[in-house]
UniProtKB/TrEMBL annotation:
InterPro entries membership: Glyco_trans_1, Glyco_trans_4
Record keywords, A-Z: Transferase
CDD domains: GT4_ExpC-like (cd03818)
Name the UniProt record assigns to this protein: Glycosyltransferase involved in cell wall biosynthesis
Source superkingdom: Bacteria
Any one of the GO BP annotations: lipopolysaccharide biosynthetic process
């Protein structure tokens, strides 16, 4: 069977699924904007496309997002026409629709089944928008803009035959009319690779001498792709004065870039990292708070393995992989009591939780775990077992993804 994957930055969420289907004897191809990939990768043939124009200057601001998706959709459409002219006819197209690439592919291959990766559907209320009162909407037209941001998904629902979402809460963010077509299966964590290691260590490059951290040290970890409010960086920084006061032997290691993944940029051209570091700078000991920037994956895993308490905070939004990786590594976790997190963390069983905005309660939970090694061991072991049972790549998630993809194919007329 011919299966075409479409992803702006392949492999993305299809890192394991595409080669797994190729290994099962399917003829698997990819259409992507990403350059520098080999023509064949793990049995998958790769074709690229390029956009031919930029966004229109002066376009209505509510339409900027939609136009960018139409531009990419047209570029993928033109590339697909060339593929069809060369004789290529997929049985199934599996796409991440988030950039608009798959908007018009059923117009090229109307008999192909279309399965889409349902990551998140923006809503004007009830999820991330308006969740944090510190960052209220400044334009009364924001709900209108958010509604238009969902048009890309709505157009896909008209064409898509099936959807796949990594968590139930993310699936439930989509309109009820399409929800019955969405299956839930996470991308998966390699729990054999992401595992505890009592011999692990993590070195921090300090001015005078490298600092070597090992399991048993009082290390608090916090990880974001970028340090920003959507993932609770501001809340975490406000926790630190009280935690460091109560735990004089603790160190804090913060992983993440200075850029922006979600939400609005920081004011004045600054980074959110500096904005909230400056807010608490006078009340913390900078020698005990370490910023690493982004880390290579193996160093990141080494840090999780030496963590005494890992803190994960998020708006009601896409669940980050770092939470599940921390669980798989056996970390004792303190997390925000927000909807996506509740699928993985049960308070008192697989971690501890407090309200996203409740700085004092979150700090109490961190200090409570630092004071109770037995609770850390129990919660860390339960978190790892939960990750292995529900999110293991090889035994749970990849078989589920393959079954979903083949079911999309099998339903073809």
């Amino acid at each position: 069977m011919k299966i075409l994957f479409v992803h702006q930055n392949f492999p993305g969420q299809f890192l394991h699924l595409a080669p797994a289907l190729a290994a099962r004897g399917h003829e698997v191809g990819v259409l992507t904007m990403r350059t520098g990939l080999p023509k064949v990768w793990q049995g998958v043939r790769i074709a690229t496309y390029r956009v031919q124009r930029g966004s229109t200057q002066g376009i209505h601001p509510w339409l900027v997002d939609l136009e960018s998706k139409v531009i990419r959709g047209e570029a993928a459409f033109r590339a697909a026409l060339a593929m069809r002219k060369a004789g290529y006819e997929p049985d199934v197209v599996i796409a991440h629709p988030g950039w608009g690439e798959s908007l018009f592919l059923k117009d090229v291959w109307p008999r192909a089944r279309l399965g889409i990766y349902c990551e998140f559907h923006y809503r004007a209320s009830g999820a991330d928008v308006g969740f944090d009162p510190e960052f209220p909407a400044t334009d009364p037209g924001d709900p209108c803009r958010i509604r238009l941001k969902g048009v890309n998904n709505l157009l896909h629902f008209q064409a898509a035959d099936a959807g796949l979402s990594p968590t139930r809460w993310q699936a439930d963010s989509f309109p009820d009319a399409f929800r019955p077509r969405i299956s839930v299966m996470h991308d998966g964590i390699d729990t054999d690779r992401v595992a505890p290691d009592p011999s692990a260590f993590f070195e921090l490059a300090e001015a005078e001498a490298p600092l070597r951290l090992v399991p048993g040290d009082e290390i608090i970890t916090f990880v974001n792709r970028n340090l920003e409010p959507y993932r609770g960086y501001h809340v975490f920084m406000r926790m630190l004065p009280e935690i460091l006061r109560r735990r004089p032997g603790a160190r804090v290691v913060i992983v993440g870039g200075d850029g922006l993944s979600y939400g609005a940029p920081a004011p004045g051209g600054r980074s959110w990292k500096d904005v909230f570091l400056d807010e608490v700078r006078a009340r913390i000991d900078p020698a005990r708070v370490h910023f690493t920037g982004r880390l290579p994956y193996e160093r990141y895993l080494a840090l999780l393995r030496v963590s005494a308490v890992h803190v994960y905070l998020t708006y009601p939004f896409v669940l980050g992989w770092s939470l599940l990786e921390a669980m798989s590594a056996g970390c004792a976790i303190v997390a925000s009591d927000t909807p996506p997190v509740r699928e993985a963390i049960v308070h008192g069983e697989t971690g501890r939780m407090a309200g996203f905005l409740d700085v004092a309660a979150l700090a109490d939970e961190v200090c409570g775990l630092l004071e109770d090694p037995g609770a850390r061991v129990r919660l860390g072991a339960a978190a790892r077992e939960h990750a292995r049972r529900h999110y293991d790549l090889r035994t749970v998630c990849l078989p589920g993804q393959v079954a979903w993809a083949e079911s999309v194919a099998d339903a073809r007329d």
